[in-house]
Amino acid sequence: MAKRMSTVTEREIRRRRSSLMLKCLIAVLIFLSIVLVAWIIYDTQFKKHDNPWTNAGGEVKAENSSSGEAGDVSASEGENDASGTQDKEGGQTASGEEDSAVETRANRMAAQYDYDGAIALLKNQPDYDRNDRFKSLAASYEEIKASCSPYPIDQITHVFFHSLIYDTARAFDGDAYEAGYNQVMTTVSEMNSILQQMYNRGFVMVSLHDMVEFDEAGNLSTKEILLPPGKTPFVMSQDDCSYYHYMDDDGFPQKLVVTDDGKVKNSYLEEDGSVSIGDYDVVPIVDTFVEQHPDFSYHGHKGILALTGYEGVLGYRTDEVYKTREAGRVTEFQQMFFDQNPDFDFDKEVEEATKVADAMKAEGWEFASHTWGHINPRSVSMESLVRDSNRWRDWVEPIVGPTDVLIFAFGADIGDWQPYSAANELFAHYKSMGFRIFCNVDASSKYWVQIGTDYLRQARRNLDGYRMYYTPDLISDLYDVSQAWDDSRPTPVPQM
Ligand SMILES: [Zn+2]
């Protein structure tokens, strides 16, 4: 009996199950039909309208719309449009989305005081004449530009930093280098405060090459830096961004690196042996600041890095000696480096450094020579001077590209305050190597600029521990030291 009951129940269950399955099947079929109808409607509409992702300028036939290639071509054209360099064909393809991308880019250019560039970008759009939004934007840029005036080129100040101290506990740990770090370095927290304060006071970062230009014959002419009222241009440089071996384990980054999205960051070796990537030195800190405050940068221009070559550049060991390991030239530090890095690959090192330099240039950074060996040109023989210049040309220039800027080491110079004369053989040498712009260190005045017929000379002001501790008043036009000062500095800062 129990068995029979059980059989009936099972049959009933099976019957109900198949009925349920049938209902499910019908539901699925109805759903699929709806999707199919929706797709047909969507597809018809899709092909009727211009689609920026499949229409690579001009008419696109329906069968092309499934081609992945067409999409790629269009995407890369879109980038060209944004740079304003390529006139788009077809004229009918601009969608609302493209308009807003152009507008965003134009606004950023105008925010960085490049009004002519922003206006040209809008006027180069094929539908400009019919685009009231673009026309009113261009008119507003013209209006702001009319309120601008040229800043006197001979009154532009120049500030500089060394590598920033990221971990103050490791830098100020009582070792032999602590005093030097305390004197000539700036900490990350001080840098953040300095940037914010200078921004609040209306300072705008310009390039040395915004100030002057040289013709083929080497003759100088001044350029015009146009800024709205209340804005003050300044030049920023960073010296010795090599992450020298002696700085290992002292709270400085290892090197500059390029992330997958093309940004320049620092890598930092933590005490536990792990590596962090972030904003730990001037370049990525300024990049991030300008991303958030575009109007801190004139035409997208940033600072200039003064590089030596003897231990490589930007944290990469790219000098000749790392390739040849020539006996007699390898220092103790370098030998230690070779011992610790048995898999060191010189060519890869040069390749990586070049990638960083290229990414930096794309972000508005420039490079200068700081002499290959961090020398004072007036305290070496002409023979060593020439050897030094050749080494910079042979081992640094291939990575960072040619430069006409020489930023002297030790704040030295190749003459006194009077104009360089043709009889100055140091000047003649550096001129023959292609240098036209020369920077020393002099913090005694707010600015010092000498405009020669064939060179520009500018003094720089050190914003480091020594300056902040002993003569904060000399830099009070730039920022308030009491707000920026990092309390983790040991005091007094040692005398030089
Ligand atoms: Zn230096």
Structure explained in plain terms:
The structure is a single chain. The protein has 496 residues and is α/β, with parallel strands linked by helices. It has 3 domains: 1-46; 62-147, no CATH class; 150-484, Alpha-Beta Barrel (TIM Barrel). It has helices spanning 2-48, 68-83, 96-111, 115-123, 132-147, 168-171, 178-184, 188-200, 208-211, 282-292, 320-324, 332-340, 346-362, 382-395, 397-400, 425-432, 465-470, 481-484, and strands spanning 149-150, 157-161, 203-205, 212-214, 220-222, 226-227, 232-239, 255-258, 264-269, 275-278, 304-307, 366-369, 405-407, 437-441, 449-451, 456-462. The strands form 4 sheets. Strands 2, 3, 7, 11, 12, 13, 14, 15 and 16 form a 9-stranded mixed beta sheet that branches. A 3-stranded antiparallel beta sheet has the order 8-9-10. α2 (68-83) packs parallel to α3. Residues 1-6 and 43-94 have low confidence and may be disordered. It binds zinc ion. Zinc ion binds at residues 239-240, 370, 374, 409.
Question: Keyphrases for this structure?
Answer:
496 residues; alpha/beta; TIM Barrel; 3 domains; 9-stranded mixed beta sheet; 3-stranded antiparallel beta sheet; 18 helices; disordered N terminus; binds zinc ion
